[in-house]
Every structure is written in structure tokens, then in C-alpha cells.
Amino acid sequence: MSASPTASERRILLAAVGSGAHIAVDLDAADVEVGREHLSARDLAGWVAEAEERDAPRWIIRSARETYAPLLAEGIRLGRTHDLLLCHAILRDTASVPQPLEPSENWVRRDAPDAEPGLFDLFESDARVDTVVEALAQYRAQRHVIAAASDGRLALLCAAESAGGLVAEEMRAAGVPWNEGVHHEILTRTLGARSLAGGLPAKMLALGDQVRTILGDATLHLDSQPKLLRALHRAGVPVESTSKWELAQYEHPVVEPLLEYKKMSRLLSANGWVWLAEWVHRGRFRPVYIPGGVVTGRWASAGGGALQLPRSLRPAVRADPGWMLVVADVAQLEPRMLAAMASDAAMARAAQGRDLYAGVVDSGAVATREEAKYAVLGAMYGATTGDSGRLVPRLRKVYPRAMALVDAAARTGEDGGVVSTWLGRSSPKPSAEWAALQSAATGADVDPVVVTQARRRARDWGRFTRNFVVQGTAAEWSLIWLAEIRHRLRGMPTAATPAKASGPFADAAHLAFFLHDEVILHVPAELADAAADAVREAAAIATTRLFGSFPIDVPLDLRVTESAEK
DNA sequence: AGAAGTTGCGCG
DNA sequence: AAAGCGCGCAACTTCT
């Protein structure tokens, strides 16, 4: 991935003009009209494939979701893009340049995540005066803003974000290799045999009866929070909620079976047989990823709960015969980013090696690894009370630079200001309602209740901006990591044994899963070691791209395995 | 009846 | 209200 288009880079704008037809514009042609190509739905895939093969251009597209998914279905892969929707979201709000991009409703991603363009959308795009002219204007406006950031950070961010858009679609097309048999076994082992009549599985039935007996209410409906709460009170368990952390505080015979029941209930409703039938088809789980779906730049997901897969189901992620998984994650990515962002040499020293928390203990700041963990998390999340809040000041002594960075971000937020990640993604402004509350709380003769409330809301927003800079920069590291992994996999030979699934990744090593600081690759066995090297190299590149020569360790836990089970 | 809000829990 | 960030989803309750 290059940070910005080079002089020799060919750029082609690809704009949908309705009914699958597109217009391609070679932006480097002397005359834009000359470089303009009308493509029917039939011609599109072939033309794109040929251009990709010949020039490996950077494709300027409205969004990977809209443009790339149909191409992938035809077996066509794109190398590089500039994703106008994703970049619009970054550039319209960036505080990295004096003049951010003029926001435009036409370039805001629709919220409905997997909504196919409906009648209305088609009507809209057909009715548009000239999709191509509009896209071209938007692209030029974006390039202008990117160029205004002379350090190249926005260019890097936009390139990485666009690559992320491609990865998301490719992972959806490829899917996570999922062994339905293993999943079924886990369900049966944990919950008992599935009821044919659509009732609860055997173990849950028995456990539910046990709980009802202990609570002395034979007809109690355990899924109703208010009813369960009243039954607990009657049985002498004075909890204020039915949450597991609170229940766990009490010594009562009902606690253990109830917690067990709740755990089972969760597994059944979130990832039970119904989920399996709906989301896994022919050995692949295909979640919908939404790059940049979180304010901080992290990815969100829609449908399938891709980002909440319980660890207990990991064993169901299985490589196809003749293939392997490369499973890699970064331990404590966020504090490592913080150390580098702040150029905090002491914290970077603690981050040397696999366990940052052990390094914090070695620095003398705290006594145990557990304390180090709470202190570091508290520093990034803005803890003020409890064990965590108590430990944070100790870090302030040992890592003053790192702490100054997050403290400043919090202060900016409390004052209603905007903070930015390392590459320049900026936090949203607080709501008008928030601002109104703050001004209502200033001045003489203000109701102390209002003042207290305003202070609390200000601190809430400060904790958000404090975390924003760290979480957002970690998301940027991960994005570059992903893009670099993808880049390296593209250069690898095809598989000796095809995978079970058809499609563009049936014979090619590919990314299969991504979760904030973790990736799973599905690769032909003979390429597994090379793929593992690619993952390591990509991580090293990500670190260098962001922080240059600043010495920060970002070690990977990496396994080449047939099963994602830990 | 269906929308909107609440609770609780999975993930980082 | 898990002492402290960011999410998505299901099931239930309450509002309209």
C-alpha cells in the first residue's frame, strides 16, 4: 500500500449509473471525455479484470460495499481503491487540516448495513444529473483535503481505510471456515440434546427445574428479569439486579445453578442451532463487516454477531482439508500505541517483549500484574474510583508523558473540544444538548443540581475523548496490518488443493476473520509458513508506518493450526 | 400489534 | 452502577 498515488499510478473512476451499468473514467487521460468508457452490466466484470491485470490502477469507487461485492461474485478482485464513502466520513470531520471536507449527504453511508439498493435508491441514482461528474468532484475535493495535510497522515489513513473496505468484502465473500458438526457437538455437550418439539435442550430443562425448586416457585419464568428478581428476593437473596456479577457476590444454593443456566441460555439464544442454520451455510460463516462503523474507526458488524463470537465456539473454526489457519493477535495493543504516540520511552521499555503488564510491574509502578492491568486500563478509560482509579496516579509518576497525552485528550473533551487519532480521524463534537447543559451550568445563581449534572456529563465526554485517541490509533495500526497482510497474500501462488467453498478464494490464501486486534487467515497448507511470515512482516510494517523509528514493540501471538481453539 | 426502551451478556 | 472505553444482539417490558 502506498501512502498516496504516485505520479505513475493510474487512476480510474468507476461510477454506477443504474441497472448494473457503469461509466469508467481514466483520470490520467489528457481529456476526461476521451478516457470515458460506457460499460453495460455485461461488460463490466471483464473490462475491470482486464484493466486490473494491465495497469493495476487505483479504482475510485463510491464504496466497496456497492461496487466490489458484485465484482467479487464474478470472481474479479481489485488491488487498490479510493473509497469515497469511507474517506468522506474521515475527511468531513477531520481536525487535521484547517479546512475539512465540505460534508455532503450524498456521500454519507446509509445506516441500513446490508440493505440492497432499493427501488428508491435506483430511482435516486437514475435521477441524478450526472453521477460521474459528482463523483469526480467529490474525489477532487477529497484529494485537496488530503494534500493539505502535508505530513501524509490523512493520505495513509484514507488508503488504509479504503483497503479495509476491500478486505471486509473479501472476508464476507470468503467466509470463516466453520465446522457445523463441531458446533453441533459443542451445543449438545453444553446444553444437552436439542428438543425436537422446539423446547429447551435437555440440560437446560433440568437445570431450570432445579433453580425453580430452590426458589420454591414451580412455574417461574426464568427469562423474565422482574419475575426472577422477585423470586430471588422471596428466597432471601437481596440482589438489586439479576446480573451475574451481582449474583456471584452471594452465597446461596441458587447462585451456582442460576448462573450456569444463564450462561446456557445466552449460548442458546445467541449462537444456538437457530444461529447455526441462519448464518452458516456450506461450511462458511459470512458475517457483514462495517469498516469504520465505530466512531473511533474500529469496525462494526451487522448480523451474525461477528464481533461477539464466544470463545467457547472457537473450536468450530476449522481449516478445510489440506488447508491451515493462521491465528494471530496482539497482546495489549492499545497501551503500546499510547506509549508510541506519547514518545514515552519509559512506557515503551515496559512494552518490550510479550507482556506489557509484566513490564509495568518491573518498572516498580505497581506490585502485581493484576494491578498493572487495572492501572493501565484505568489510565486509558479514565477510571477515577475503585482499585483502578486508585492505581492510576502511580502510572502518572512513572509514565508522565503517556499520561499527559490521555489526560490532555480528556481535558479537551471536557471542554467540548475535538481530539484526533495519530493519523487524523477526529472525534465527533458533543451534542447540542450537551453544549446547552454546559452553558446552562456557567454563570451566577445556577441551580447546583444543574452544575453537578453538567460536571458529570463533561467528565463522561472527557472519558470518551481520552479513550478515543488510543482506541482510534489502535484501529489504525490494525487497518494497516490488515492491508499489508492482504497485499502479501495476493502475491502468493494458488492452492494445490482447492478449499471446500467455491468463489474467488477457493484456491487462494485469504483473510477469514478480523476482530480489532486479531486476524484469522485460511491458507493452503503448503503456504502456511509463508502466510505466517506475511502476518509478522505486516505487523512490523504497520508499526513503522505509524511511528517511524520510535522503538515500540508490537509482538504477535501467532499460531499455525487446523483449529482456532485456544 | 408494533415501536421503543431496558436488561443482560458476548467480544475487544 | 461493575470502579472505566467502544460495540451488537436477543428477550423482555413498557409505551403508544
Q: Outline of this structure?
A:
The chain has helices spanning 41-55, 64-73, 84-91, 119-127, 131-148, 153-174, 180-191, 202-215, 225-234, 244-247, 255-271, 273-279, 333-341, 345-350, 356-362, 369-381, 386-398, 400-414, 432-440, 448-490, 528-547, and strands at 11-18, 21-26, 36-39, 58-61, 80-83, 176-177, 280-281, 284-285, 288-290, 300-302, 323-330, 510-514, 518-524, 556-561. Strands 3-2-1-4-5 form a five-stranded mixed beta sheet. Strands 12-13-11-14 form a four-stranded antiparallel beta sheet. The two termini are 32 Å apart.
Describe this structure as you would to a colleague:
With 566 residues, this protein is of the alpha+beta class. It folds into three domains: 174 residues; 96 residues, Up-down Bundle (Taq DNA Polymerase, Chain T, domain 4); 133 residues, DNA polymerase, domain 1 (Orthogonal Bundle), CATH 1.10.150. Helices cover 50% and strands 11% of the residues. The chain has 21 helices and 14 strands. A five-stranded mixed β-sheet has the order 3-2-1-4-5. Strands 12-13-11-14 form a four-stranded antiparallel β-sheet. About 3% of the residues have low confidence. The chain binds a DNA duplex (12 and 16 nucleotides) through helix 10, helix 11, strand 10, helix 16 and helix 17.
